[in-house]
Amino acid sequence: MTSSQPHLHQKSPEIQQFGTVTQLPIALSHDARMYACQRLNRVLADTQFLYALYKKHHWVMRGPTFYQLHLLLDKHAEEQQTLVDVIAERVQTLGGVAVGDPRHAAEITEVPRPPDGVENVPTMVSRLLEAHEIILADAHDAAARVVALGDDGTQDLLVSQVIRTGESQVWFLAEHLVVTPLAQG
Ligand SMILES: [Fe+2]
User: Fold this and answer.
1) Ligand 1 centroid vs 58 CA: distance in angstroms?
2) How far is the CA of 59 from the centre of ligand 1 (A)?
3) Which of 19, 106, 121, 150 is most buried, taking the most CB atoms under 10 A from its CB?
4) 73 alpha carbon to ligand 1 midpoint, in Å?
């Protein structure tokens, strides 16, 4: 008998476990794809937390530079969110499993947890800069190592997207920590 009743509450065991890669015909060895997925998942987890840090600081920003920082941090958050998707889809392209659940990402990230409350503006800007540098150092190292294993695509993503975006955002943020008068008396 036919029925249009959906079969709800379906359950299955995992069909691919985290930390494994399927074989795709992309001319990269199993070891190269495993290694790249491991490195990318760390960058992915860190980038998810950098995105969240940008959003938190976008919301709780204070003081006379509130408006410009409120807007700038949201722009950077959007760019980091785009990176999250690009990195995750690279993991899938390599046959891996991208870190998705934020509780899983929290187990992997090296970005320090901020206090739940509000810090002053220079401290919040510094916190973002420090998170950026953690990711940049890791991305530089990962880029050099994956290219040695023949994974040009992952190296290109890390260099042209993760590193270039991060460096530019660091520039825009760091200029807010320069003490300069608005006018000379
Ligand atoms: Fe907003």
Assistant:
1) 7
2) 7
3) 121
4) 9
